[in-house]
Design goal:
nine-stranded mixed beta sheet, 8 helices
């Protein structure tokens, strides 16, 4: 029997985590599947997470809360959860944000990512505005660091397609070859880094079309496309991680990417105020010096 390991990094989001686990249970209808869940607690919510743990176990899921390490960031948190899941024999890892919900398919379908090979990174799908299904992929402008959709009609001369970070499937072989998530990213750009390193290592990206995930977005981080609603944490860490990403993978484009962030700081000043602009500048400098 093959094992699906699910990692959920919780940061002050126990209610969202509970909703996600309920949706996982509702779509766990394959009696032949072995499913294990690692809830990584980055915010010391053990008492809030214990009932969720009990609920998962009551419905036949192997589950564990990993706690006591403080807020180590999203990448390191995923590595903590993955380490335990791999130790107990997980064949496929499924990285899920707490503010996601399974809306279609059977969760054991995540194991189908292996049909594309033993060393693969995969995306699930979601429903688009027209009611159709689209793969959960993103595109990164490799000159400015701007993110968008691969199919939104952008004309960027150079872009990197990546699996959206809220729902990433990684086979055991791919996770080991990648050596997990890069922990110099505290928040944001982890999925772009995975895509860049996968391309370098020859690890393909595939889509599991019969598994649908809904993502609310920004539940714990305050991430939002609305600049007035975006948190200072998001402004800072998105800027910091952007610089780290370009320095690691596209160093010759780093000056342009830094200029783009500082231009964005000016826009943030006009739209969201001085605190937002300062956070962008501080994050950019921190990323350049990291």
């Amino acid at each position: 029997m093959r094992t699906l390991g699910i990692v959920i990094v919780n940061y002050m989001s126990a209610d969202d985590t509970a909703g996600l686990v309920r949706s996982l249970v509702a779509h766990n209808t394959d009696p032949t599947a072995h499913v294990a869940i690692a809830i990584v607690d980055n915010s010391d919510q053990r008492h809030e997470l214990d009932p969720i743990l009990g609920f998962a176990r009551q419905h036949g899921l192997l589950a564990r809360v990993i706690h006591g390490h403080g807020n180590v960031g999203y990448a390191a948190g995923n590595n903590l959860g993955a380490r335990w899941l791999l130790e107990i024999g997980a064949d496929v890892l499924w990285i899920l944000n707490p503010d996601t919900r399974i809306t279609g398919g059977v969760i054991s379908s995540a194991l189908n990512v292996s049909r594309a090979g033993d060393c693969v990174v995969g995306a699930t799908t979601s429903t688009d505005a027209d009611g159709g299904s689209r793969p959960d992929l993103g595109a990164l402008n490799l000159w400015t660091g701007q993110s968008g959709q691969p199919t939104d009609g952008n004309t960027w001369p150079r872009k990197l397609t990546y699996v959206a970070g809220h729902s990433i499937l990684i086979t055991r072989g791919a996770f080991k070859k990648l050596n997990g998530f890069a922990e110099d990213f505290f928040l944001f750009y982890e999925e772009a880094d995975i895509a860049a390193r996968s391309a370098h290592l020859g690890i393909p990206i595939t889509v599991v079309s019969d598994l649908e995930v809904e993502h609310v977005g920004g539940g714990a981080t305050g991430a939002s496309r609305d600049m007035t609603a975006k948190s200072i944490t998001t402004y800072f860490h998105a800027s910091r991680s952007c610089m780290i990403f370009f320095r690691k993978h596209y160093g010759y484009r780093l000056p342009l990417a830094a200029f783009a962030r500082l231009t964005y700081a000016g826009k943030a000043l006009l739209v969201a105020g001085p605190k937002a602009a300062t956070a962008v500048i501080r994050g950019t400098i921190a990323g350049l010096l990291a």
